[in-house]
Amino acid sequence: MIHNTHVSQFIPPTAFHPVTGTFTWVAGAVAGTIAMNRAAANETSVINIPILIPSNSIALQGAKLVSIEIDYEFFTAEPTSLTPVINKVTRGVDTAVAVVAAQAFSQSPTAANSKTVDQHRLTLTLTTPIWVDNDEYVLVELSLVAGAGGNTAKFLGAVANFTLRV
Predict the structure, then answer these.
(1) What is the rounded CA–CA span in Å between residue 139 and residue 48?
(2) Which residues contact residue 86 at a Cβ distance below 8 angstroms, ignoring those fewer than 6 apart?
(3) Which DSSP symbol is given to 148?
(4) Of 163, 66, 57, 80, nearest to 123 (Cα)?
(5) Helices marked H in 81-125
(6) How do residues 37-61 score in pLDDT, each as one tens digit?
(7) Residue-wise pLDDT tens digits, 82-129
(8) What is the 8-class DSSP label of residue 43?
(9) Radius of gyration of the chain from Cα atoms?
(10) How far apart are CA 93 and CA 101, in angstroms?
(11) Taking a C-beta distance cutoff of 8 angstroms, is the pair 140, 122 a contact?
């Protein structure tokens, strides 16, 4: 059996799903990278980030999600807020709907410091890490409120940190 407590999975910005807001794919600040860009706009944007890690039908096997890091940049102006939520979604059986359960977490930097004009790595650490069952998946939902005059934002990718037991 493999039991590795330091496994990570990069999630490219092309896997992000902008639910609301106007986004385009652009070159990242570093040559050879891509970013999901929102031009200056006075709007609220919601972005879903699927956490792409292995799952398993056997209890305490597969992936135990510990934390998620999201890389992004704010330019032009500071947004009013950037609010993350981690949701564990349990798939519904035939004719039943899925069940969404928000997960408790801490974040670094703080909410106030995560919205300054700068480059950021927002780390969301689950209060109680979760084993992901084969009937579950995890989504991070970011709500970005631009504020008066709008701001420019680039989302560069995310990394899921987990324990792998197989």
Answers:
(1) 6
(2) 68, 102, 103, 105, 124, 126, 138, 139, 140
(3) T
(4) 66
(5) none
(6) 998 878 889 999 999 999 999 989 9
(7) 999 999 999 988 888 999 999 999 999 999 899 999 999 999 999 999
(8) S
(9) 17
(10) 17
(11) no
| Cβ proximity of 103 and 155 under 8 Å | no
Kindly state the tokens that stand for 47.
């972005």
- Domains of the chain by range and CATH? 3-165 (2.60.120.260)
First vs last Cα of the chain: how many Å apart? 6
Q: Report how far apart, in Å, the C-alpha atoms of 120 and of each of 2, 36, 37, 108, 134 are.
A: 33, 15, 15, 10, 32
Residue 152 · residue 1 · CB < 8 Å: no
Q: How many residues make up the chain in this entry?
A: 166
**pTM greater than 0.90 (yes/no):** yes
Of residues 138 and 42, more confidently modeled: 138
